Amino acid sequence: MEILVDTVNLDQIRRYNETLPLNGVTSNPTIVKKEGKIDFFEHLREIRKVIGKNKALHVQVVGSTVDEIVADAHRITTEIDQDVYIKIPTDEKGLAAIKVLKSEGLHITATAIYTVFQGELALAANADYLAPYYNRMQNMNIAADQVIAELAQAIKASKSQTKILAASFHNVEQVTAAIKNGAHAVTIGTDVIQSGLNVPLISAAVADFKKDWESLYGSTTIAD
Ligand code: E4P
């Protein structure tokens, strides 16, 4: 299981790189916009410095023709490094660009996946990751769990190295459902991480345990 954060906020990346078993960072233009008009490549190089070479950095193209997508990918890898996963929307032009870029040895994340059909085509194109959009599928009354389960099955049947990187989560229940249905990786927004960890029930249990310890031994830690 791989855990990624769906943000380009440097403070949040530093924080979760310290506290979570983090495998990487994902971004898209909407996520970038949340930081204001940053120096895009300088900012992404800083993220790379924070997470290091061993963690994955997924960066999305914005070009809309095959040539533009390929050019975006080349600029991203030139400005950051060759290890970046290039996120490409899974439509006809995106699939054509994936063919070109895979033949050059680049790492690819086929994104904006809403259907098993899109995922199967990206799998056949040998994308490294397939990114199904969990919440957006649910908004469209598409059975997100089933899409992920069928793609996981297709990957297994083809003995492919491709992984499912489930994305677009708006609550923790969606994250755990994606994992249960076969996602190999999940990218989670910092708001969802907080809503899963910053839970009054957890704080209340911790406070009760501390109170009982103190009433027995009079110290606030075992080490005291
Ligand atoms: C990954 O980075 C995806 O683009 C992202 O998770 C989409 O999330 P959204 O549906 O909340 O915009």
From TrEMBL:
Q: Which GO terms describe its cellular component?
A: cytoplasm
Q: Which Pfam families match?
A: TAL_FSA
InterPro entries for this protein: Aldolase_TIM, TAL/FSA, Transaldolase_AS, TSA/FSA_arc/bac
Tell me the SUPFAM superfamilies matching this sequence: Aldolase (SSF51569)
| Molecular function as annotated in GO | aldehyde-lyase activity
Reply yes or no: does the keyword Signal apply.
no
The protein's name in its UniProt record: Fructose-6-phosphate aldolase
Q: List keywords of the entry alphabetically.
A: Schiff base
